[in-house]
Amino acid sequence: MKNSKILYQHGTLALLVPGLLTGTTTMGDLLAHGDTGIGTGEGLDGELIILDGVPYQIDSYGNANVLKDDFIMPFANSHFADYTEIGTISNANPADFEKVALEGKPNSNTFFSVLVKGTFSYMKTRAVVKSTRPFATLAETAKNQSIFEKENVKGTMLSYYSPALFHGAAVAGFHNHFLADDHLFGGHTLDFKITEGTVSIQQFDTLEQHLPVDDKEFMGHDFSKDDIAKVISEAE
């Protein structure tokens, strides 16, 4: 039975910090836990967005590729979509969006997801260039990225909100990915302006955290030596 109250997460953002970028789960496994989600491929191979059960990778060339079940990832989220539309938003920047998504509260102590479908007068995204072994740190790998900008684009922005308490496991606050309706543009969002869009929210009461216990590098790494919070905040 599909439980729409569960947010499934494979890996943590913390494991990316020291460069543990090995793919430790497959897209096929991830899709067993949801039809909607985000993530990145092995070696930070592009930015992933899953909508309506279809997984897309926006690579460093800006292409939106449909992924097969054997695509591997070090980190990803997924859930079964059951959104509730809360209204429309117009002429909105990221701060406006966050205020609407948080319903006027300064923060939230629960995980939730937000979908914005509509027209964006401006969208700035990025996709990291895939790295190969030996993997560098997240900070070093993220420097090699492509930046994309587009005006007046129709599409879907998928966002996950994580409480501050979980920073390191995920990104505290909002983590947004975008895919244009024509599948010719997308990525991890860096900035945007919403002309007009429909806002829908889905709240979770459970975080199902799956860890790569069969990966020797992960199991043997001492995370106390990593400045996790700072690196994640700068990279994301």
Task: Kindly list the characteristics that best describe this protein.
236 residues, acetoin biosynthesis, Alpha-acetolactate decarboxylase, 5-stranded antiparallel β-sheet, mainly beta, decarboxylase, 15% helix, acetolactate decarboxylase activity
Order of helices and strands: EHEHEEEEEEEHEHEEEEHH
The major sheet is characterized as: 7 strands, mixed
Helix content: 10-25%
**CATH fold call:** 60s Ribosomal Protein L30, Chain: A
Beta strands, count: 14
Tell me about this structure.
This is Alpha-acetolactate decarboxylase. GO terms for molecular function: acetolactate decarboxylase activity. One of its GO terms (biological process) is acetoin biosynthetic process. Pathway: Polyol metabolism; (R,R)-butane-2,3-diol biosynthesis; (R,R)-butane-2,3-diol from pyruvate: step 2/3. With 236 residues, the chain is mainly β. It has one domain: Hypothetical protein, similar to alpha- acetolactate decarboxylase, domain 2 (60s Ribosomal Protein L30, Chain: A, 2-Layer Sandwich). The protein is built from six helices and 14 strands. The strands form three sheets. It has a seven-stranded mixed β-sheet. The longest helix has 8 residues, at 94-101. 39% of the residues are buried.
In brief, what are we looking at here?
The chain has 236 residues and is mainly β. Helices cover 15% and strands 45% of the residues.
Indicate the topology:
Layout (H helix, E strand, L loop, with lengths): L5 E5 L2 H4 L8 E2 H5 L4 E5 L6 E5 L2 E5 L5 E3 L5 E2 L1 E5 L4 E9 L1 H8 L10 E17 L9 H5 L2 E18 L10 E8 L5 E18 L2 E5 L5 H5 L7 H8 L1
Parallel strand pairs: 1-14
Antiparallel strand pairs: 1-8, 2-7, 3-4, 3-8, 4-5, 5-6, 9-13, 10-11, 10-13, 11-12, 12-13
Pfam families: AAL_decarboxy
Pathway: Polyol metabolism; (R,R)-butane-2,3-diol biosynthesis; (R,R)-butane-2,3-diol from pyruvate: step 2/3
Protein name: Alpha-acetolactate decarboxylase
